[in-house]
Automatic annotation (TrEMBL):
This is Heparan-alpha-glucosaminide N-acetyltransferase catalytic domain-containing protein. Keywords: Membrane, Transmembrane, Transmembrane helix. The chain crosses the membrane at residues 27-45, 57-76, 96-114, 135-164, 231-254, 261-280, 292-313. It comes from Salix purpurea.
Length: 342
């Protein structure tokens, strides 16, 4: 992400997609959430006390949330404005670490409280053991995206009040989508990210896919705030975490290499194929909205990469290419790098 923030404008292939589509930068967040889920499956494979585990999970999520608010909420004003503090009327409530905190907390609660007691002897018995973990979130996301009616969008830019008339249902365009509407309604439009990715689309930038001046006929919504780590999109992000949790379950319940690889590769391939089919059918792969097709493609890709690394390192014992991941400094703590990158 440091590379994307600093060099994304020079190398469009590693920058975020302006709206629909997928680039290298767009897989970083879901891959991270996927590995959070895998780690949860290993962390909570044995529980001595559910109450203690719940308290620790909540405290860890709160720490991530607070750090995220500090790094992305508006406390750090940049090198050209060496001041501190934040205007609470415009603080950005959601962000990268906040989304990770939500995914971690929901995944941990599912693993602690929604896990069956039956023994796992096959793939089917494992599905029965964890059958309640994903259904409710998928249903919530689908109903919100397809059922919410976006009437209009209003915002202030350069002291001018702009209004975008919508009156549509189920759209995934930049102007009138349920993801942005719910964030504006619950969080407030002044608490959203003020540099949305769709400002780099051809409609909103003459230098697309990079940032640039507005075209003469640019619509007013090009200047509207939009949070790529908002509330509704975080629901599907949590599902990515739960997919990773399932892969962690496979490590716990299956000990043979061939069983693990089979139970990883089959759903990974199905996820990628399903996501591509949905994209071709009109439900586009979109990181900003965290669409179901985007979740499928990125979760499946994460599973395939994870399986490939497992085969390379654990099956063939070829560890040399992965030695760079075993950092002794800085303190084995990725949060330090995130803080430096911000």
């Amino acid at each position: 992400m440091i590379l994307v923030d600093d060099a994304g404008g020079v190398l469009p292939a590693i920058n975020h997609s302006p709206w629909n589509g997928l680039t290298l930068a767009d897989v970083v967040m879901p891959f991270f959430l996927f590995m959070v889920g895998v780690s949860l499956g290993l962390t909570y494979k044995k529980l001595s006390c559910k109450a203690v585990a719940t308290r620790k999970a909540i405290l860890r999520a709160l720490k991530l949330l607070i750090i995220g608010l500090f790094l992305q909420g508006g406390f750090l004003h940049g090198l050209n404005d060496l001041t501190y503090g934040v205007d609470l009327t415009q603080i950005r409530w959601m962000g990268i670490l906040q989304r990770i905190a939500v995914g971690y907390l929901v995944g941990a609660m599912c693993e602690i409280w929604l896990k069956g007691d039956n023994q796992v002897t096959s793939g089917l018995s494992m599905l029965r053991k964890y059958q309640f973990q994903c259904v409710s979130l998928l249903d919530l996301f689908a109903n919100c995206v397809r059922g919410a009616v976006v009437i209009l969008v209003s915002f202030i830019s350069f002291l001018v009040i702009w209004v975008v008339k919508c009156g549509v249902r189920g759209t995934t365009g930049p102007a009138c989508n349920a993801v942005g509407m719910i964030d504006r309604t619950i969080l407030g439009i002044h608490h959203l990210y003020r540099r949305p990715v769709y400002a780099r689309t051809k409609t909103c930038s003459i230098n697309s896919p990079d940032n640039g001046p507005l075209p003469p006929d640019a619509p007013s919504w090009c200047q509207a705030p939009f949070d790529p780590e908002g509330l509704l999109s975080s629901v599907m992000a949590v599902v990515t975490c739960l997919v990773g949790l399932h892969y962690g379950h496979i490590i716990v319940h299956f000990k043979e290499h061939k069983d693990r690889i089979l139970h990883w590769m089959v759903p990974s391939t199905c996820f990628v194929v399903l996501g591509l089919v949905l994209d071709l059918s009109g439900m586009h792969v979109n990181k900003a909205l965290y669409t179901f097709s985007y979740m499928c493609v990125t979760a499946g890709a994460a599973g395939i990469v994870f399986t490939g690394i497992y085969i390379l390192v654990d099956v063939f014992g070829f560890r040399r290419p992965t030695l760079g991941f075993y950092w002794k400094q800085p303190g084995n703590n990725i949060l330090r790098l995130i803080g430096i990158g911000r």
